[in-house]
């Protein structure tokens, strides 16, 4: 294809697809997929002690997950409180009668239920996967009538009206600065006060590094004095506030500092009443722990959440790593930094799951082969960890996953120093994979007809392989070159050569620096890209496929579908790119786009992405992968790319890493792919991410019961209404009080305080 024609095709494609984009990005469709998480069999096999342990850990996780509302947007806690009040007074069926009487259509009421289910699922009004705001898909006046005429409003008129006045406008607003999470003019975030910029975030990170404080459990609030000088509050999450506590390593940190001409104050007590409930239930779980590792782990988590100490959480994580192969697996804390616009503050999450023994046996075999497989990775041995610390790798059936979303697999802890010296654990979440990633044939976009049946048959098995390799040998591989506080290096400066330059190592991590703090805004996505690339690269290895039970033609199909899934995901990723700010909103999807670009760059017809017109007359696209060229063209291209990623990561070369990664992540309308125009096509044909309904556990006498719910928006709402039966009103009050106490940090100078609960 000649370039001018490709260019003009881009323009036509963009114009044709530009119509309905604005709305559909910001609503959840009425026909959104909803699936229930099935863990009945795994739960049935637990002993009564294990059930009690799982129950109290689940309660701790669900309470802690409420902190995510305060980590997302200023209005999220009020929206949650309003919805909780509505559905506590009338369940979805009862409220439906009232809504229809108020003049809503069935479609409008369903749109409200989907919105409410979305808020509960994402723990806020921004999508956890993509960080885009979603608003109710019905007229505001109609929703107002339903709310103000509801049973909840009749029982507590002032409170319900106050909540609506506080969050009603923001619930529907799609002002430019509110459409996405981001810092400063880029969007909204409650990890930082509204007046913070990326420069403030960088200064705060330098300050935290200088004091050897982690950003994981912090938020940053900036105030500007009358003299125009800024002062910053770094607030740690903890139960304790200003109370003196002489025994804690944290007490000495809680004071004022002057740093690079700015005033910093370290305080604590963020989310205190929520964390109090977390601590209380972790204490109850401790009585049913299976061994001393679990007891000591929980004691350290309790210390961490009480004092605001990440060091205590690290100690707890050490005991957690040592607790090999538990029947009930869990992790809890401020963990993933994907949603912090700067990339270093952790969102609260907690999960509880039970081991799936059949799949875990395959993962154990993969772990046993890991040291051999690590040698296959395309970087010199000096760039690999000195010793592979054999991790736990289990397939789990999730009972509880509290936070903003549920992943398919996890490799934790995220503390670099622990990962390098103590090890880590991998988990694949089997019952999540079973429901979250299935696609109906008629909804399968951008593939050739002849690929669709193959894709549907092998997508699940190939994803099992990819998740296993991604978590264990992706996140689990590679060494960071570090100089410690005494000046000692963990590599030989004389003999280690950079394979990209042929010279000795010129850069490394200084004491106190971490991967997240150094690579900040690109760290999460870059690391996901490295792990995804390792998965694609190693799935070509016959031993890997044999471990998962695939040989011959089946093995070739698994490889083909794994690679095809990745290049299709690279195209789907465009949904998560914001052209206005030239920014990506989702780390994994940015990573998949980068891999698509690398494979396109390899040429020779390995991958093609072509704009087409669909059978419905609307813009469409096709992704093609030449399966005969995966090994001859794809593998060498991935090998070169992976080596560069690892070398730049190992040496802490931020400038080189940014240049490489941001270069591939740039979205332009350059032919032949015309990605900016294709983005409109992707938005036109996107399928909303499924909502997942989770069960509850309830203590009845001394026995724990499992309560399951139907796979619908109404079922998801019921699961949340029954989650906090005893203390729902108290939690709503806590959330709105915490939100109100900090509300001034996100108000413009002209705004007066709104009504509150």
Give a nutshell description of this structure.
The chain is of the alpha+beta class and 757 residues long. Strand 13 (607-613) and strand 14 (619-625) form a beta hairpin.
Summary tags:
about 750 residues; alpha+beta; 4-stranded mixed beta sheet; 17 strands; disordered N terminus; disordered C terminus; metalloprotease; aminopeptidase; zinc
Structural notes for this entry:
With 757 residues, the chain is of the alpha+beta class. It is 48% helix and 13% strand. It is built from 28 helices and 17 strands. The strands form 6 sheets. It has a 5-stranded mixed beta sheet with strand order 6-7-8-10-9. The longest helix is centred in the middle third of the chain and has 26 residues. The radius of gyration is 25 Å and the shape is globular. The N and C termini lie far apart (62 Å). The N terminus and C terminus are likely disordered. It comes from Rangifer tarandus platyrhynchus. It catalyses: Release of an N-terminal dipeptide from a peptide comprising four or more residues, with broad specificity. Also acts on dipeptidyl 2-naphthylamides. This is Dipeptidyl peptidase 3.
Strand order of the largest sheet: 6-7-8-10-9
Low-confidence stretches: 1-22, 749-757
Radius of gyration: 25 Å
Number of strands: 17
What kind of oligomer do you see?
single chain
Major sheet size, sense and barrel closure:
5 strands, mixed
Q: End-to-end span in angstroms?
A: 62 Å
Q: Which descriptor suits the 3D outline?
A: globular
DSSP helical segment count: 28
- The share of residues in helices is 40-55%
Protein structure class:
alpha+beta
């Amino acid at each position: 294809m000649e370039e001018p024609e490709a260019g003009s095709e881009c323009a036509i494609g963009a114009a044709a697809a530009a119509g309905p984009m604005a709305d559909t990005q910001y609503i959840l469709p009425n026909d959104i997929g909803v699936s229930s998480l099935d863990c009945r069999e795994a739960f049935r096999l637990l002993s009564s002690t294990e059930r009690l342990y799982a129950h109290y850990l689940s309660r701790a996780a669900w309470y802690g997950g409420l902190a995510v509302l305060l980590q997302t947007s200023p209005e999220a806690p009020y929206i949650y409180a309003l919805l909780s009040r509505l559905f506590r007074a009338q369940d979805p069926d009862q409220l439906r009668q009232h809504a229809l009487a108020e003049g809503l259509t069935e479609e409008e009421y369903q749109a409200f239920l989907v919105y409410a289910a979305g808020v509960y699922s994402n723990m806020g009004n921004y999508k956890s996967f993509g960080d885009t705001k979603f608003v109710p898909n019905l007229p505001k006046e109609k929703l107002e009538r339903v709310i103000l005429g509801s049973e909840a409003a009749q029982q507590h008129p002032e409170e319900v009206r106050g909540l609506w006045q506080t969050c009603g406008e923001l619930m529907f607003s799609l002002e430019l600065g509110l459409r996405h999470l981001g810092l400063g003019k880029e969007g909204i975030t409650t990890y930082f006060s509204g007046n913070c910029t990326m420069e403030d975030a960088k200064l705060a990170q330098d300050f935290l590094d200088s004091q050897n404080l982690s950003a994981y459990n912090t938020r940053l609030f900036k105030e500007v004095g009358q003299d125009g000088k800024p002062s910053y509050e770094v607030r740690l999450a903890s139960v304790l506030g200003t109370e003196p506590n002489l025994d804690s390593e944290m007490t000495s940190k809680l004071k004022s500092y002057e740093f690079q001409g700015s005033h910093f104050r370290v305080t604590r007590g963020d989310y205190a009443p929520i964390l109090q409930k977390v601590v209380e239930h972790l204490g109850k779980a401790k009585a049913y722990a299976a061994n001393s590792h679990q007891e000591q782990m929980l004691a350290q988590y309790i210390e961490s959440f009480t004092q605001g100490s990440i060091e205590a959480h690290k100690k707890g994580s050490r005991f957690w790593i040592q607790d090999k192969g538990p029947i009930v697996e869990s992790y809890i804390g401020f963990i993933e930094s994907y949603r912090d616009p700067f990339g270093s503050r952790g969102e609260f999450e907690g999960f509880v799951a039970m081991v799936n023994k059949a799949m875990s046996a395959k993962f154990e075999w993969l772990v046993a082969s890991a040291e051999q497989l690590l040698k296959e990775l395309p970087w010199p041995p000096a760039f690999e960890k000195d010793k592979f610390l054999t991790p736990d790798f289990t397939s789990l059936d999730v009972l509880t996953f509290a936070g903003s979303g549920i992943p398919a697999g996890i490799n934790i802890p995220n503390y670099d120093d622990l990962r390098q010296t103590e090890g880590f654990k991998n988990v694949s979440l089997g019952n999540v994979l079973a429901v979250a990633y299935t696609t109906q044939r008629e909804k399968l976009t951008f593939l050739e007809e002849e690929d669709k049946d193959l894709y549907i048959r092998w997508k699940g098995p190939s994803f099992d392989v990819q998740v296993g390799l991604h978590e264990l040998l992706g996140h689990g591989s590679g060494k960071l070159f570090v100089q410690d506080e005494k000046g000692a290096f963990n590599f030989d400066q004389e003999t280690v050569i950079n394979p990209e330059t042929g010279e000795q190592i010129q850069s490394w991590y200084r004491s106190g620096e971490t991967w997240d703090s150094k690579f900040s805004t690109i760290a999460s996505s870059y690391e996901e890209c490295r792990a995804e690339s390792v998965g694609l690269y190693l799935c070509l290895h016959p031993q890997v496929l044999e471990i998962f039970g695939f040989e011959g033609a089946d093995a070739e199909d698994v490889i083909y579908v794994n690679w095809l899934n990745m290049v299709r995901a690279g195209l789907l990723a465009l949904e998560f790119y914001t052209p206005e700010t030239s920014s990506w909103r989702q780390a994994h999807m940015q990573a998949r786009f980068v891999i698509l670009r690398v494979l396109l760059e390899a040429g020779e017809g390995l991958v093609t992405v072509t704009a087409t017109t669909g059978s419905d007359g609307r813009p469409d696209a096709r992704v093609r992968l030449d399966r005969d060229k995966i090994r001859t063209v794809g593998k060498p291209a991935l090998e070169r790319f992976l080596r560069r990623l690892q070398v730049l990561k190992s040496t802490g070369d931020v400038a080189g890493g940014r240049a490489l990664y941001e270069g591939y992540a740039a979205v332009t309308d350059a032919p032949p792919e015309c990605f900016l125009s294709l983005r409109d096509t992707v938005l036109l044909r996107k399928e909303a991410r499924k909502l997942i309904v989770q069960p509850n556990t309830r203590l009845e006498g001394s026995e724990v019961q499992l309560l399951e719910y139907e796979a619908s928006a109404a079922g998801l709402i019921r699961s949340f209404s029954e989650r906090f039966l005893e203390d729902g009103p108290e939690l709503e009050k806590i959330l709105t009080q915490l939100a109100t106490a900090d509300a001034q940090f996100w108000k413009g100078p002209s705004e007066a305080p709104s009504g509150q609960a």
